[in-house]
Design goal:
Number of domains of chain B: 2
Largest sheet of chain B: 2 strands, antiparallel
Largest interface: A-B, 34 and 24 residues
Oligomer: heterodimer
Number of helices of chain A: 9
Radius of gyration of chain A: 19 Å
Shape of chain A: globular
CATH superfamily of the domain at 4-89 and 164-253 in chain A: P-loop containing nucleotide triphosphate hydrolases
Number of strands of chain A: 10
Strand order of the largest sheet of chain B: 1-2
Shape of chain B: globular
Radius of gyration of chain B: 21 Å
Distance between the termini of chain B: 34 Å
Strand content of chain A: 15-25%
Number of strands of chain B: 2
Chain lengths: 254, 355
Amino acid sequence: MNLLEVDDVSIAFDGVRVLDHLSLSLAPGELRFLIGPNGAGKTTLIDVVSGKTRPDSGRVSFDGDDVLGLEPHQLARRGMGRKFQTPAIFPSLTVRENLEVAGGSDQRHAGWGLLRRLQPEIEERIRDTLHLTRLGADASTRAGLLSHGQPQWLEIGMLLVQRPRLMLLDEPVAGLTRAERDRTSELLKVVQQHCAMLVVEHDMAFVRQFDARVTVLHQGRVLVEGELSEVQKDERVIEVYLGSLQPDETAVAA
Amino acid sequence: MATIGLCADSFALMRRVVICASAVLLLATVFVLPSLLDPFRLNLLGKYLCFALVALGLDLLWGYAGQLSLGQSVLFGLGAYLFGMYLKLESSGGKLPDFMSWSGLTELPLFWRPFASPIVALIAAVLIPALLGVALGYLLSRSRIVGVYFAIITQALAFIATTLFIGQQPFTGGTNGLTNFSTIFGQPLRDSTVQVWLFQVTTLVLAVCLGLTLWLSRSRFGRLLVALRDDEQRVRFCGYDPTLLRAIVFGLSAALAGLGGVLFVPQVGIVNPDSLGIILGIQMVIWVAVGGRGTLIGAVVGAIVVNSLQTAVSESLPDLWQYGIGALFVITVLLFPRGLAGSVSLRDRPRLEAA
């Protein structure tokens, strides 16, 4: 059974079709990249899957359950984690506190549990995550003072502590330096072993580092799906990218 | 390592000193102050301590959860009115309260009847504002009315409440409010031992509430409130319901405001629509801002200091106070954005600036 099933989803904003009868499925543990020119509907798709936006029609099921209409916090508790394009962390809290907030939303820790300490099991998970994201030395630093790149890793770490079965990532390496990209891909390769991931990404060099299938979106529809090398040779993909007069998107042909 | 160890030691020592000093201060306030201050000053201080309770709740809501309310006065006034209903009934000695007969009522309205019991009145005066806070917090947050819109709505609420209470004269006493109280729990209210006792109870209640809110602010719940202030979206995607959190914290702050109102009314001897009003609602925000947001102690200090200043200035220069409080607010915001407590804090607590 597929972990995520997006079936015939459509949504329009002010009369503009952003997603047009789009279907997509993801197997448990699968890593999938989502590419496509600006306005192809990549972020909207992530919004729909994570419960942030409700589509006009279609179905979304997660782990066999119909999840359309569930709130993001309910989906998060069912095992869906989401990373935003600009890192969404809590700047006033320390790195460790950020991870504690992320790790404490399950039944035992929410509600009245918020007045108690975290279970040792979660504490251990937090220690592991600090190690994995190399933020151990900064555990007591306020997250707002982290240097460039680190907030991205912290956010990924926060998702890891949540132990999701599906992670949705929106351009995890946008605006990062070369070294930071490498570090991020290392991190994501570890994450890949734990959960399925759906990643929106523009950077083809980054995508190439993973052995993963790629779905190309265009005008709210799935244009092509396959290995990166096949996709890059596809006539329609080249047409969409090169013919769209968006020089910043031509990276796909590189 | 040695210096770190030394630091930890001196912090532990400082902590112990602070705890001892607080205990001494509390005991001195409860047992020594009543014999030092004349009854009039003691009564004023008691009133400020009631305001400090409200400030404590507002700080939890504003300083931690980042949600400014300009309508805490409504919840405070509501608590004061509800407990005032009991005082009024007891003072009327089984007869219809005076303002009701002036307004032409011949028998006690149904919703007034349970308030003949001090226990019912006491519980209702804390619980009803709390429930109102939870309901408002839930509905406003669910409609995504947060931030400045929340502040505006709560201010409108203060206006509505004032208008309502003035308009419903037969049930609320109109502009005069509820007054002419004579006894509390069967004891003469103006008796100085009763007033000292009320002051002592207020001090202890404030100390307990300060302790509880400090503990709460250091719990994971407190950190979650700060997280909510920082990034609501992330809180949501971490698996928490921000609507529920907002409802809970507004409910808590409302309960503290109601409790402040309960203790206020027997000490001041009157509650009128001014206690629910816009001006008081804004002053409450100023107490917290001057004292220092996000510190809780600052809210208490701010309420006491600003009100003492207000009394001192308005006693000698009655017309100037309005300018004084305005200037104080502007100076605080411009020069000491972290307020009194934030500015003297020994530890570096930059998290207070982020709101």
